[in-house]
Description:
By secondary structure, the protein is α/β, with parallel strands linked by helices. It has helices at residues 2-7, 19-36, 51-62, 90-97, 119-133, 169-175, 194-199, 213-221; strands at residues 13-16, 41-44, 72-75, 77-79, 109-110, 138-141, 163-166, 188-191, 202-207, 239-244. The longest helix has 18 residues, at 19-36.
Amino acid sequence: MFMKERMKPKVNVLTFPSEAELNAAAAGLIVGLIQTKPDAVLGLATGGTPIGIYEELVAAYRKKLVSFRRVVTFNLDEYVGLAPGHPQSYRSYMRRHLFDHIDADPARIHIPDSTAARPEEECARYDALLAAAGRIDLQLLGIGHNGHIGFNEPDRSLPFGTHVVRLAEQTRAANARFFASPEEVPTHAITMGVGPILHARTVLLIAKGADKADILYRALTGEITTECPASLLQLHPRLIVMADQEAGRRFR
Length: 252
Ligand code: GLP
């Protein structure tokens, strides 16, 4: 028992007194990276969690602290079955919260195209783009209530690369708050696989709110299993975890 404990490095969770301080710290890390590496490759997330971080990035851009002109971005995922331009597509989300407000080069922005006639071909295309870009420098991640990262849902095994996934009912229920009715939440998505996520040079995992406390604790201290995809992050050599008081409470 003692040996087991000793061999497992403890994941350091940075807990912030307020959401504003967390957002500022996370954005500061990203801005610092771009200042030292203007052509950095960023892996970007959606959902409620990163919105405040994107607001801080926009603020830094407006203060001329950073330029995104040469930055390359890859979004984790996209819903299947939403019309192009649907306000809840992740493409619309990214424009609304970040891309419309900064100087990012559209040619360097990548989001899976879930309107593609052949989704498997789109997955292969996305993986080829990721491979051509090299390693992601910083992967921003939220965590789902069931431990999903991107839309890699708990399963007996997980693919390395981009794939079409059937969304867990728990995930659809959690995301129903963004749609007019729960039935409108798509049943499928295209998601980046865990391969490129775990290959990222740095992973920045963000958790906010009391409803994330248990899954964050389980993911970072429990057994490593594809049944909790975020638990794979325990294997990452440069994992930074930022939580607010509520989500980080089990680590105090
Ligand atoms: C979403 C996204 C994930 C996100 C997670 C948590 O559906 N696909 O990338 O990290 O689920 O979402 P939220 O931040 O809204 O809690």
